[in-house]
Design brief:
The structure is a single chain. This protein has 50 residues and is mainly β. It has a single domain, classed as Ribosomal protein L33 (Rubrerythrin, domain 2). Strands 2-1-4-3 form a four-stranded antiparallel β-sheet, with no helix packed on it.
Length: 50
């Protein structure tokens, strides 16, 4: 199965907020998205964690 589960963590408070899936064949590198963090109460960069 090419899609794997990933977890996104906030770049500011480092809390893990989102569970997503991604296709590791097309995106083998770690992804970054600008998403809303409910702990920081604003939009921040979220990075893929291991």
């Amino acid at each position: 199965m090419p899609r794997d589960r990933i977890v996104l963590a906030c770049g500011e408070c480092k809390r893990r907020n989102y569970d997503l899936t991604k296709n590791k064949r097309t995106h083998p590198e770690r992804v970054e998205y600008r998403k809303y963090c409910r702990f920081c109460n604003k939009h921040t960069m979220h990075k893929e964690t291991r």
